[in-house]
Amino acid sequence: xxxxEPPSHVRSTFGLREVEPIPLGxxxxxxxxxxxxxxxxxxxxxxxxxxxxxxxxxxxDGVRLARPVRATDGRYVVSGWRADTFIDGSPEPRHDEVVxxxxxxxxxxxxxxxxRFLVQPPVAxxxxxDVFVAADRAAWEQVPLRGVKGQFEATSADGRxxxxxxxxxxxxxxxxxxxDQLVHGDLFGTVLFSGSEAPGITDITPYWRPAGWAAxxxxxxxxxxxxxxxxLIGRWEDLPEWPQMLLxxxxxxxxxxxxxxxxxxxxxxxxxxxxDLIRLML
Length: 282
Fold this sequence. Notes:
This protein is α+β, with helices and mostly antiparallel strands. 38% of the residues lie in helices and 11% in strands. The longest helix has 18 residues, at 242-259. The protein is globular and about 60 Å long.
């Protein structure tokens, strides 16, 4: 999250030179509100431009989407900043509604093609996005974390515990038949609620995985860090191949914990508790 105010030339290119920016904080990933437009810093140009292009025309049922605002020259991203329409709301612990939104959203994204950047492997020196790419692959490849062997070694006690747990969970995987598609893999804590209005989404973090996996990531996050009740898992057991989707979602989050340089030991106990719950389903 950036605390740096958007530069004047960026505001000008988006037609916002005369507007005083107001910081919005974590709900908008360090974005700044300028009237009805939000300027947000971009971590990866290709992903930001792709998300903007998709959100420009996507119409999921019962979802408020922040629509991109193009610059005066037609660009989606200018000097590391993007612009979107402001939508009201803030994250709330309405976990079942997030899972429900996930399924509606992914019904709409199912026809989308796989963007080329999702095929590319992580490359050293790693950026944040490479950590998530490597973690995603770890949950699905035959030997977890084989793709980063020689580039990464867990040095902290909690990092080593995460790697050991990933290895144990990998033995519980079974082949799945659910088709891969374009999904938003980071819904927990990013869905904006405003009373009885439809939930809102400000961005799409793309992965090429089954829709049930994306719902599983939201549930794993909610159980591990969001104070969700344990019955949340069972309420969605009718989703296709649900135990295996949860298993891979958990392995993904454990791999992020092991790989990310800003991971903290305090995040691991929640994942361990969630692992115990998921093991009971397998």
